[in-house]
Amino acid sequence: MKIASRVSGLKSSAIMEISAKAGELKALGKDVISLAAGEPDFNTPEAIQAAATKAMADGITRYTPAPGFLALREAVAEHVTRENDFQVSPEEVIITSGAKHAIYLTLQCLVEAGDTVLVPTPAWVSYSPMIELSGATILPLPLFEEDGYRVNVDRWKGMAIPQNARGIILNSPNNPTGVVYTREDLVRLVGWAMQRNLWIMSDEIYEKILYDGAEHVSTASLGPEVKSNTITISGFSKSHCMTGWRLGWAIADKDLIKRMSALQSQSNSHVTAFVQWAALTAAKMPSDTVDQMVAAFDKRRRYCMERLDRMSEHLSYVRPNGAFYLFVNLSKFLSRKKISDVDFCRDLLAQQYLGVVPGSSFGKEKCIRLSYVTSQANLEKAFDRLEAYLKV
Ligand SMILES: Cc1ncc(COP(=O)(O)O)c(C=O)c1O
Questions:
Q1: Is 180 inside any structural domain?
Q2: Is 301 helix (H, G, I), strand (E, B) or coil?
Q3: Domains: count for the chain
Q4: Looking at the chain, which terminus has fewer C-beta neighbours within 10 angstroms, N or C?
């Protein structure tokens, strides 16, 4: 069979590959620790599990409307209006198979072959393949460690932004850097984008995972004109430990939501009925479960930073105040050893049985991303191994 050119060059996620390699070594009996995953290590709160079980028993097992149950679209609209400081109506919400599919549907509906989509980079690994699948080209806009990986539009002054640039993808709190954009960062960035007639996709999937008093500002809350130009992406995957449930949402102009629903109806139909029903419980839950998880992540974040600070002769990093990642610049070490970040990750896994993700998967070479979504005991072992490797 001849594979369509659309997918023949499509790679599966680099993170999933590292996790698979780590899994293989584990199956061989090796004591592997992986700091590659991008998901909380806690189980889904019991109230959400119970809601799913009850929904199944109650027969919520059939087809649902393509954009999701109206009750859930209403609950998400209320949840976002309450917590994100902008008004949302249910017709502006589509329930999708994770935030990822919300991004995919948006791109399929807004981008034509030959268009360009701008992405401040380093950026999450899946934006680029999803942009390419829509027929468009990605234009990375560089972010700099010296700027704390914040967006600094002055840095892009000399860059030629093509006429066919249609939109920009923002992600705060950020994967891989853990940086949370301030209101001022966003105002400048949105002004820059709107001057260029770009729509803004604001991926806010880590919005609840914040430290050091950082505030999450939703792009769409910056005013009605910004809202009408923004597609907000989020969900409960990270905040409510529901990565495997595959439920997220997009919030956008209702005509775009209708197109996305049509596409969803002709592809995956809708999100699993009882998963949607359980998400109603997530939407109405008090925040203490999320707060407890974030407090646990914060402890680990501080521990990891302490350990990294002790290795400063080999590396540098920007203190993250959101998500659950550390993005570490290893250029000092890699230049000395004359190896790439990909070689480093391969070697670290082979020699120390420690899995981390190369920065080049996020569009930034000579760096690695560490996730601290694992136990304190594992983190202690992981940093001992990293230290041992760097000392070689
Ligand atoms: C920045 C970013 N956006 C979106 C997603 C996808 O989230 P979901 O699991 O809800 O599809 C991820 C998952 O890792 C992510 O890191």
A1: yes
A2: helix
A3: 2
A4: N
Which residue's CA is the nearest one to ligand 1's atom 7?
99
3-state secondary structure of 118: strand
Distance 233 CA to ligand 1 centre (A): 9
Q: Report how far residue 1's alpha carbon sits from residue 5's, in angstroms, rounded to the nearest whole number.
A: 12
Ligand 1 binding residues, C-beta < 6 A: 38, 98-100, 124, 171, 175, 203, 205, 235, 237, 243, 248
* Prediction pTM value: 0.97
Is there a single domain that holds both residue 278 and residue 321? no
We report the CATH number of the domain holding residue 385 as 3.90.1150.10
Question: 225, 255, 284: which is the final residue of a domain?
Answer: 284
Atom from ligand 1 closest to the CA of residue 124: 1
Helices (H), 111-163: 127-133
CA 64 to ligand 1 centroid distance, Å: 24
Please identify, among 214, 249, 284, the residue that sits at the C-terminal boundary of a domain. 284
What tokens appear for 64 in the block?
Answer: 């649902």
Question: What is the number of other CB atoms lying within 10 angstroms of the CB of residue 295?
Answer: 10
Would you give per-residue pLDDT tens digits along the chain (392 residues)? 999 999 988 887 777 778 888 889 999 999 999 999 888 899 999 999 999 999 999 999 999 999 999 999 999 999 999 999 999 999 999 999 999 999 999 999 999 999 999 999 999 999 999 999 999 999 999 999 999 999 999 999 989 999 999 999 999 999 999 999 999 999 999 999 999 999 999 999 999 999 999 999 999 999 999 999 999 999 999 999 999 999 999 999 999 999 999 999 999 999 999 999 999 999 999 999 999 999 999 999 999 999 999 999 999 999 999 999 999 999 999 999 999 999 999 999 999 999 999 999 999 999 999 999 999 999 999 999 999 999 87
CA of residue 48 to ligand 1 center, whole Å: 20
Q: Are residues 334 and 378 in the same domain?
A: yes
Residue 296 domain-assigned (yes or no):
yes
What domain range includes position 370?
A: 5-43+288-391
Q: Which of 208, 209, 207, 178 is nearest to 304 (CA)?
A: 178
